Amino acid sequence: MRALLGILVLAIAAWLALALLAPKGSSEPAQAFSSSRECQTCHAEIFAEWEESQHAMSWTNPAVRLLSNDFANQDCIDCHAPQPVFVTGIGNRVKPRTLRRAEGVDCISCHQLPANADGTPGGMAGGLNNERAACRPTERRELARPDHCAGCHNQHETVDQWRESSWFDGLGKQDCSDCHMPIVEGPSGSHRSHLFPGGDTLSMLQRAVTFEGAAVDGAWQVTISNTGGGHAFPTDERSRAADIFWRTLADDGTRGPWRHLHRMRSPYRTEVDVEVTLLQADEVRVLPVTAEPEGLGDPITTDVPIEVALFYKRSPYWIDPANPDPETEATLVHSLELRQ
Amino acid sequence: MSAREPRLPLGRLLVLAALGLLPACGGEAPPTGPVAVERAPFPTRPVVREALAALLAEVPDPVIGDLPTAEADQELVGEVHGLVTFLSSATGGLVDAAFDDIQRLGDPAVPVLLSIFHDEERIRDERRSALRLLGSIETPTAALALTREMADNDDPALRALAAWKLEGHPEDLAVGPLLKRIKYESDASVVPWIARALASHGNYAGVEPLRVLVEWYGSGSEAAGHLVSLAEEAGFEASLAGAAELEATWLAADPDGRLPTPAVSPRRELDAWRWIAGLADFQLRGVDDGRFVLVSYGTWVTPLLAEALHDEDQYVRLHVAQALQRRGPRAAVALPDLVAALAEPGLAPTAAGALGALGNPAAEAALVACLGPVEPAELRVAAARALGELGRESSVSALEALLAAPAAGGPKAFPELEQAVVESLVRLGLDSDLPAATTRVPDLLRFSRDRFLDATTSMRVLREWIGAAAEAELEQDPEPESPGPAVTLRDAWDALAPDPFTPATPAEAAERRASRLALVEAALAD
Lengths: 340, 526
Fold this sequence. Notes:
The complex is a heterodimer.
Chain A: H1 2-21, H2 44-51, H3 62-67, H4 77-80, H5 85-88, H6 107-111, E1 125-126, E2 138-139, H7 146-153, H8 158-163, H9 166-169, H10 176-180, E3 183-186, E4 189-192, H11 202-208, E5 210-216, E6 219-225, E7 241-248, E8 259-264, E9 284-288, E10 306-313, H12 326-329, E11 331-338
Parallel strand pairs in A: 1-2
Antiparallel strand pairs in A: 3-4, 5-6, 6-9, 7-8, 7-10, 10-11
Chain B: H1 10-19, H2 47-58, H3 74-89, H4 93-105, H5 109-117, H6 124-134, H7 140-152, H8 156-166, H9 175-184, H10 191-200, H11 207-217, H12 222-233, H13 240-251, H14 266-278, H15 284-296, H16 302-308, H17 314-327, H18 335-341, H19 348-357, H20 363-369, H21 377-390, H22 396-403, H23 415-432, H24 434-439, H25 441-448, H26 455-476, H27 485-495, H28 506-525
Helix pairs in contact in B: 2-14, 3-4, 3-5, 3-6, 5-6, 6-8, 7-8, 7-9, 8-10, 9-10, 9-15, 10-12, 11-12, 12-13, 14-15, 15-17, 16-17, 17-19, 18-19, 19-21, 20-21, 21-23, 22-23, 23-25, 23-26, 25-26, 26-27, 27-28
């Protein structure tokens, strides 16, 4: 009797295991997704990361709206509200979508696969295959490759800049996802971060460049090196700029006004008289500290203690161009005090 | 039955029957609801490639030759140098003699003149004389050389001089590059000369930037003088009001045929096809330039764009439809092609947007047909928005019917469609039925607060409604003792406008939006 009972229990357990673990509904098509909020149910942690990211704000960010003339510049729409990259084709230029623009560059933009031949949803690209999940993820390695990012980010030549750098084929080669989608630990396990840290993250800016000062022939000079950017610093986004300022340091601790030394930026097309001064990947730029910007005026001699600082700006303009105030209008990235 | 023959699927007929929306045959009553239509297939072909090949066979590109080095050519080189030196000091009728001589020398003189012009060792007068002489050679090669200087020279004065010499030049291949240059020209002294050169070829796209300059620098400015003379030369009153009329006539596609319409040469047409071809490029900045130029051409380009809508390249089709949308009434003849494009799923939403912008009542029925539940979601939303843009009061019933549709497949289950329908209903009611529009304002508030909807479109319509309400109030009492509630609301809303030059943070923008919505809510409560 006990043996029979045991067999019965085993049979029930086996049936339960089969019922729970066997691929279920694999012949049914994937669920159709019409909004990224539908992903939140299963992927709450990743969704929460994305919601804080620049990708999530790509349509609503007031800075973007201002710089794109509220998207009257139609060429901005294609990347700020793109159709799914897998649908348009990896490496192809993306196309603008009409719906869900407020969701910006969302889950569907990067993960949705083309529909099946019979018109049923094609599921999502992911890191593994899972026929039980509603979105039917299929492992697609392209998801983490730079070509996947290139449709948009090469509009700013970022991927090309990376391809020409030591990061592409050097000893320590790394690509987009290594820096911008690092593996992080969370309650649901390790995964690639969907915060997409970049120019909006101070630690990323700080690791992109090294900033050093030295006394040479009795005068100060600074050296800025793009040792960690992986692409130009800043990249080719015309609204971004990096500026070096300096100011005097008095013995009593007071500091003089900031004085502009050098700007790194790619100009808008309208700025015909502005040179491209991006600091390319691996580039080392040596700048004498001078009384006037861009190497003009007298060199600042080493008997004058100074502070030199690198600032990063997300808009290229100063409120008062004659008296820029980097501390309130830009982000301080590195600062050096140079004393004899 | 061939694969292309249209047929009515049973499913669609059933849907129509179920909705009771099958319209009665005949009659000219406005469409009253979503009518599903079976659209003819939308075949594509290599339109752009074929057009380029045909035109290049007809008019090969001009080629600027190399600087002559052979002994036999030195006489020519000496003669050109002599003319440059002579022109730099000549006055009166002698100047014309120099121009006649250079015209006789023709294309071989072009590289010599360019070498003098680019020689920075030479005095400025001689370099300018070289450019003036270049402008007197009435060949495509000379026009090409001038065009390049107008477009790319770093010196604003020389860009202006090149533009001046392109004014009235018999070759019109510069029109496209002139349009692109005026998009980027940041030197106020160059803009008038580009505008004049464009006008001499029957293109008045330069009037708008001139007007902007007049707004900045005043009615006594040099730009104002150019604007007034352009108006006069085009047959309008010699005044800023005449210039405004000229601009309106240009933008309305010259309905009464008042504007001069010089013939378009095959080279200008070739240039237009090249801009169209460029819409397929990877870099969107170039695409945006192309779209701008194609939007700014005269009405002659619309048939080309309508044809290019059928091109084999998906990017060309998409951006051509966007260009047609931006052309608005100046793209009227593209209506049949845009209606046909509704059958191409990737193109249909943009084609619907363009149909809304044409201002042609004939677009209404096609757009109403796109609202039906069997249509793709993107198309339904685009069509609902386009009907608001088209501005036909007769569309109200179709939009209202859609809003009242059962939840499944209707806007209530599809917030973005509901938003588009309500926004269009408000817009359509602003002129004809302001109270009805006002009843929908709470919905606009709701959409503006939904994180997953585009708040900016609802906020824009809210501002339109506020403006219309304020105008209606002032119409009733043009000189009130104190501002009425609508005017007060409008002023308070506008006072919250962000600094146009400093990007706000997302938090600041959200706070501003919340404040504006609170203002409207308070006004509605009163």
